[in-house]
Amino acid sequence: MHEDGETVSAQCAARLRSGRPHMSFTRAGEELGMTQTAVSYQIKLLEELLGEPLFLRRPRQVTLTDTGARLAPKVGEAFRALHEAVAGVRKSSEEMLNIHCTATFAARWLARHLGSFQLENPMIAVRLETSNAVIDFSRTEADLAIRWGRGDWPGLRRHFVMRGHFTPMLSPALAESIGGITKPEDLLKLRIIDPRDHWWQTWLAAAGLVDVDLADRQSSKLGVQAFEAAAAIAGHGVAILTPEFYADDVALGRLMQPFDILGDDGGHYWLVYPEARRNSPKIRAFREFLRKTVPTFDLEGQYPMSGA
Q1: 219-235 burial, b if ≥16 CB within 10 A, otherwise e?
Q2: Which CATH number, 1.25.40.390, 3.30.830.10, 1.10.10.10, 3.40.50.1820, labels domain 3-93?
Q3: Domain HTH lysR-type, which positions (predicted)?
């Protein structure tokens, strides 16, 4: 059918579900927000498709032909079925929030707070998918994502969540094994977990150690910050981590942060979703939850404020 005819058909659903079509092209046009001429044209297209007249045109009145009278209830049934199917899909879509998230943010922050989100929004179920990949929203079921990066993703609405700075952390027992950590150079006496991670060079430069070369260190790449933290807690070396994620481990004496020096390579955590979905109720609910839960969450701004 002609594209405009598809639009009219969708808009006519409410009327046809009742089984009582308008007997006036003008009244039909008023209900649909169209001109009488446009409605008449679409009916003409349908009649040409069927090869039969659906209405008898009389002055100031149209009436259904026998063909039109036979067609109307069947069309009404079809629109009822279509309406129910669309409503069912829409309801299911609004009941499930699909979140894509980096593995570390999911393990160290999101998993701890999702229970509170669902208590506040009992009608929304959550499905969580984790990876460090930058997903294409047109090729995935994800409704929104928590990404790490610089926030430069065209076509997406974005909100700053928290800074992605980093610093060396290790177990207190490992620090004691060399008599304590008093200056940044002391860290180099210990095994470095993933010495190829560019965060190390950024942090060492911030600490004044600009000429340190870690290239000859034994290489290990665990791939996920949460795994590196687990290795550090076990005393297997010094990991470079985002300290906000490990406050509980520090409080329990499993990790220590020997220096206040923080590295920053411009990457931070962001909430992102397609611009067209900004008014989705489930996305609004999650956005509001982050606003209330994360002190640094920036609802309106696009970039982190100094000191955030």
Answers
A1: ebeeebbbbbbebbbeb
A2: 1.10.10.10
A3: 24-65
The reported pTM is 0.66
The tens digit of pLDDT for each residue in 258-282 reads 999 999 999 999 999 999 998 999 9
